[in-house]
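Q: I'm building a small set of examples for a reading group on sequence design. Run inverse folding on the following structure and report the sequence directly after it, with nothing in between.
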């Protein structure tokens, strides 16, 4: 095939001088572009590696007073095992955060109740998390879930904008999570000494980062999560596109990469639930996350793909929580 291609190339440039000129121009442009990509890649790698842990963690410094969050709580409905409230508060980027809070109804027990703060999966809303509240309410657990924040950034005319919009959204989710924990702690029914962060897919980033940086969270549960994906895409898929404000852009992306927070989880127990036939997340990224968590952990593999009904794993999840309650 290579010999034949060279033969055809020879015939074309001999018979058509214009084609020859175009081919030479194309090859020259390609060589220049590739050289530029290499320079860009080297600069990106250099700046990426220079970013310090302090710079990354500074993104999530608490900059609010719970009394200024404008908290509102309204009873939506009464269900068999819990009362369901709608809670709103001021989030980042001048957005209101709306969440559903399920408070258990247990005879002879008015609280305080331990809390599961749930971060929905990619296509979930807070209403889709009723399965968790239905099962955990009977177990005496309060459940709080909020919708994902809208990314405030507008897409720019560059390929990297997709990464920056995703990073903006993830960053806002973590910051709103810090506020949400403070909101829940302000309610007398919540046991401030027993808080679990739990999330699936998109929501696992918030779980991993918050479990690492917020001492109020005692353990974390991830469902089909990974670490290393943001780094992989930032340094490979979008490598020639960064131009202005390179360091600022890379800090934004790196601050939403769980890989750099996992060592901070320390001895907090972690339950990692993954799907055997998951086509959305590469196994090497799942393994990178699992290997980076050095404290107590359990890995549960289910015979499903990326999206599956949460009720499938709830019995194992409840058993694991009960086994680790003493360490909280």
């Amino acid at each position: 095939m290579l010999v034949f291609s060279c033969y055809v190339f020879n015939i074309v440039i001999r018979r058509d001088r214009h084609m020859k000129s175009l081919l030479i121009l194309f090859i020259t442009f390609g060589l220049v572009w590739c050289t530029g990509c290499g320079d860009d890649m080297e600069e990106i790698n250099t700046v990426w590696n220079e970013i310090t842990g302090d710079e990354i963690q500074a993104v999530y410094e608490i900059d609010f007073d719970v009394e200024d969050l404008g908290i509102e709580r309204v009873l939506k409905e009464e269900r068999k095992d819990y009362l369901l409230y709608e809670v709103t508060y001021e989030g980042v980027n001048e957005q209101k955060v709306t969440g559903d809070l399920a408070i258990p109804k247990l005879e002879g027990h008015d609280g305080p109740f331990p809390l599961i703060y749930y971060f929905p999966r990619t296509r979930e809303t807070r209403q889709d998390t009723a399965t968790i509240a239905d099962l955990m309410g009977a177990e005496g657990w309060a459940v709080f879930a909020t919708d994902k924040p809208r990314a405030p950034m507008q897409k720019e005319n560059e390929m990297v904008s997709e990464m920056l919009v995703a990073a903006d959204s993830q960053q806002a989710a973590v910051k709103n999570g810090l506020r949400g924990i403070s909101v829940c702690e302000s309610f007398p029914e919540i046991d401030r000494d027993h808080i679990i962060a739990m999330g699936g897919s998109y929501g696992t980033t918030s779980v991993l980062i918050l479990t690492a940086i917020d001492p109020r969270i005692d353990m974390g549960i991830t469902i089909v999560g990974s670490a290393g994906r943001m780094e992989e895409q930032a340094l490979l898929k979008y490598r020639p596109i960064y131009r202005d404000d390179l360091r600022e852009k890379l800090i934004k992306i790196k601050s939403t990469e769980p890989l750099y927070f996992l060592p901070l989880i320390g001895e907090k127990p972690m339950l990692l639930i993954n799907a055997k036939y998951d086509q959305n997340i590469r196994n090497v990224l799942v393994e990178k996350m699992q290997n980076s968590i050095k404290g107590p952990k359990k890995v549960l593999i289910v015979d499903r793909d990326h999206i599956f009904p949460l009720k499938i794993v709830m019995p194992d999840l409840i058993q694991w929580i009960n086994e680790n309650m003493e360490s909280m």
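The longest helix spans residues 17-50.
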